[in-house]
Structure formats: structure tokens, C-alpha cells
């Protein structure tokens, strides 16, 4: 949304916007109540979501078959997971996946590649999506899943 407003401002310099250029605002306003509801549900369920994801990742990594990580590394992953859910939820709320991609994910991708955790991410983010869907209705999930899929695509590449 913020990226679209910025683009609109540049595109319409010295003239009025057309109806088609304003369409994204109408679309957003039609979905804002559901976006807020989804955001609030994720916020209220954050700890339960994180615990369930952590348990599933632990189960998936039985005998360190996926990754080896000491407790400090696991704590960093838990922190990053929490931040990813928050940033993805914020991007969903304001409908601005471009800003999520350009402002956070490209930077995080560098870190993920540097430590060699692309495989971990490719397994991790689908689990986050699976767990979050359990806390949301299908209608709510359709708003957050694109952000989480973008996370997985960029960080797992």
C-alpha cells in the first residue's frame, strides 16, 4: 500500500489520478476489516503459533538430520521466526509485500546464505504456514499466506 501510494504520487505528478489508478485504494478499503481481524488473531496467537512451529521443527530435525544448531543458534532462530511473523503480518495489514521484500527479505537473504541455512528455511517456512492456517479461517489465511510464501521463496532461494 505504501509503495503503491508512492508510485501513484510519482505517476500522477501535476495531474489527477484516474479511476483505474485509484482502484488499489478501493480494493484495500474493501479488505481492511478482514486484514485487521487477521492481524489481531495472529498477534493474539503468536506464542502458541511459535511453540507449535518450534515443536514441529524439532520433530522434523530429529537426530540433527536437517541442521545442527546449539542452543544459542536455536534461540536466534526463534527470535527471527517471531520477527518474520510480525513483519509478514504488518506487510499483510498494509498490503505491501513489495516493501517487505525490498526492506527486509533481501537483506535477510544475504544472512541466510552466509550461514548456509537455505535448506532450513525451505523446510521451516512451510511449517509456519501450516501452523498459522490452523489459527485462522480460510478467508483470513488468504491474506497472510502470500507474505509467508514470499518469505519462503526469497529466503530459501
How would you characterize the largest beta sheet? Answer: none
Name the CATH class. Mainly Alpha
Q: For the terminal residues, how far apart are their CA atoms?
A: 26 Å
Output the number of helix runs: 6
Query: What gyration radius follows from the Cα positions, in whole Å?
Result: 18 Å
Q: Mean pLDDT across all residues, rounded? A: 89
Structure summary, number of beta strands: 0
CA-based shape: globular
Amount of beta strand: under 5%
Structural domain tally:
1
* Helix content class: over 70%
Overall SS class: mainly alpha
Low-confidence stretches: none
Order of helices and strands: HHHHHH
CATH 4th-level superfamily: Phycocyanins
CATH architecture descriptor text: Orthogonal Bundle
CATH topology: Globin-like
Protein name: Phycobilisome protein
Keywords: Bile pigment, Chromophore
Family: Belongs to the phycobiliprotein family.
How would you describe this structure to a colleague?
InterPro entries: Globin-like_sf (IPR009050), Phycobilisome_asu/bsu (IPR012128), Phycobilisome_asu/bsu_sf (IPR038719). One of its GO terms (cellular component) is phycobilisome. Belongs to the phycobiliprotein family. This is Phycobilisome protein. With 157 residues, this protein is mainly α. The protein has one domain (2-155): Globin-like. 83% of the residues lie in helices and 0% in strands. The protein has helices at 2-11, 19-60, 71-93, 97-115, 118-135, 138-155. The mean pLDDT is 89.
Amino acid at each position: 500500500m505504501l509503495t503503491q501510494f508512492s508510485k501513484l504520487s510519482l505517476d500522477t505528478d501535476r495531474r489527477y489520478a484516474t479511476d483505474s489508478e485509484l482502484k488499489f485504494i478501493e480494493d484495500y478499503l474493501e479488505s481492511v476489516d478482514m486484514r485487521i481481524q487477521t492481524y489481531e488473531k495472529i498477534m493474539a496467537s503468536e506464542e502458541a503459533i511459535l511453540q507449535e512451529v518450534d515443536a514441529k521443527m524439532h520433530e522434523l530435525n530429529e537426530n540433527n538430520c536437517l541442521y545442527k544448531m546449539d542452543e544459542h543458534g536455536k534461540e536466534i532462530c526463534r527470535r527471527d521466526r517471531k520477527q518474520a511473523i510480525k513483519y509478514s503480518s504488518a506487510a499483510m495489514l498494509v498490503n505491501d509485500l513489495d516493501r517487505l521484500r525490498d526492506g527486509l527479505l533481501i537483506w535477510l537473504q544475504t544472512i541466510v546464505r552466509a550461514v548456509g541455512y537455505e535448506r532450513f528455511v525451505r523446510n521451516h517456512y512451510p511449517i509456519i504456514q501450516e501452523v498459522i492456517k490452523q489459527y485462522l479461517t480460510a478467508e483470513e489465511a488468504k491474506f497472510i499466506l502470500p507474505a509467508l510464501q514470499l518469505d519462503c521463496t526469497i529466503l530459501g532461494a
